[in-house]
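Bit of a strange request maybe. I'm writing a small parser for structure token strings and I need a real example to test against, not something I typed by hand. Could someone generate the tokens for this chain?
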Amino acid sequence: MKNRFKHFHFDELTVLEVFLVVALFGLVAGATFLALFPQLASQSVVSAVQVAPTPEEYRADAAEAMKQFLSQAGNMTDADFGGTAAPIMLELAGKTQTALLALRVPGDLKDAHLAFVLLLDRWKRALSGDVNAQTGLAEKTKQLMATYPWVAPEGSGI
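Reply from user aminoacidic:
Good idea to test on real output. This should exercise your parser:
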């Protein structure tokens, strides 16, 4: 049986010729487009530069994000970690952590932000049943609120 298919072998010159034809076509198409629509060539590209919030703005946003969780966490007892409140608090901790992670953080408050996110991660592990994460969690939360009192809601019990 004869092979009815032709085999094409491209050498370096053929590949270079194809590349040059495609590049020339792109150049001609671009020049034609700019000649037909000169107003587009004069428009500058506007980039969305995001500016980090001021420390005061971040403090207000972080306090708002943490307010509900910290109010509820201040009312929890050791028995609540295995009770019916645990799944609700676990969901609240996850939502609070997501809200915090969505915030833009000024450079001088990155340590505080990381501490809040890690504290919420520890709360999530504790509420999932990790006994090691439960140990000293209330004290760690109180310590963090003492370090950053602007995040603690009024009457949170923490």
